[in-house]
């Protein structure tokens, strides 16, 4: 038997990987063989995943907590599964789905059942990704309808803006001098001036 490896993925830096890490540590996987990415599962362009793939050899065993931790793109999950199990010759165990354990059922029937389960779960993972994006878009639209503002709040105008603006319009100051007097970039001063003039 080869080496034991574990792979963890969380979608954002805010998400907690503890649940996956605890499950892998219980299997006595050496810490140096646990690879973790903190980014979306939309594709496999992830630095730690790529390092893991380079390390895997024939008869190594890779554990993942659930299929959606591997990825959320149906076609790419199937492609990576084949790369790891057929090209690399490693085995994979999906802890949340005991049917996805390539050590068992190496005969035709076992392979057939694993392939069916893998395809169904990969489809579910991608479908969930699509649903997440739709729910996110709906949530943003609903928040905007309630008047929620996104992004950084606008920088307040400096106290001297109105008098400097008047001096600039009266040609007592150049645009650059006016912006410097207000401690604003030229483009910001000009944009704020246009907004102010439209509102008056």
Automatic annotation (TrEMBL):
InterPro entries: Recombinase_CS, Resolv_N, Resolvase-like_N_sf, SSR_resolvase. This is Recombinase family protein. It comes from Faecalibacterium prausnitzii. GO terms for molecular function: DNA binding; DNA strand exchange activity. PROSITE patterns: RECOMBINASES_1 (PS00397), RECOMBINASES_3 (PS51736).
């Amino acid at each position: 038997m080869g080496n034991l490896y574990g792979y963890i993925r969380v979608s954002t830096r805010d998400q907690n990987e503890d649940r996956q890490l605890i499950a892998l540590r219980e299997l006595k996987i050496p810490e140096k063989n646990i690879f973790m990415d903190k980014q979306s599962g939309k594709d496999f362009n992830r630095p730690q995943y790529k390092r893991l793939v380079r390390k895997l050899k024939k008869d190594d065993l890779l554990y993942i907590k659930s299929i959606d931790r591997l990825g959320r793109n149906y076609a790419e999950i199937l492609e990576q599964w084949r790369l790891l199990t057929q090209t690399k010759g490693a085995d994979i165990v999906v802890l949340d789905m005991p049917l996805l354990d390539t050590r068992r059922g190496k005969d035709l029937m076992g392979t057939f059942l694993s392939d069916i389960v893998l395809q169904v779960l990969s489809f579910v993972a991608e479908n969930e990704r699509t649903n997440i994006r739709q729910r996110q878009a709906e949530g943003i639209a609903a928040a905007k309808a309630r008047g929620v503002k996104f992004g950084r709040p606008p920088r307040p105008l400096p106290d001297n803006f109105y008098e400097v603006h008047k001096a600039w319009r009266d040609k007592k100051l150049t645009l650059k001098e006016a912006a410097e007097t207000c401690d604003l970039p030229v483009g910001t001063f000009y944009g704020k001036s246009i907004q102010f003039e439209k509102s008056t």
